[in-house]
């Protein structure tokens, strides 16, 4: 068994698709109409056959509440691995990404947290 898709609630699918592809650099894999919304997934450019991230509408009341509460508490909705966190921090900052936590050493890893502008905090980690 392996993880093939994981989802992230987003407030606006178009805005999220732009942010995750044009700002972060992921690659759109699927964009399929499903009723009022779309099945939109992105993948790492280095692992296009790997795990997909589903940009899922936060339309369910429980999703909206969950997303709002973890964001208010400063809890990242998900985590992405990076090879060089300082270089990634610089690249993303230059693209206008706002960090809530700059690169910080935590034991054997270094983390940073940014706002995805779609209702989520995202943590990046260099192990």
From TrEMBL:
InterPro entries: Glyas_Bleomycin-R_OHBP_Dase (IPR029068), Glyas_Fos-R_dOase_dom (IPR004360), VOC_core (IPR037523)
Coiled-coil zones: none
Domain of life the protein comes from: Bacteria
Domain VOC residue range list: 1-127
Name of the protein described by the UniProt record: VOC domain-containing protein
Species of provenance: Paenibacillus glycanilyticus
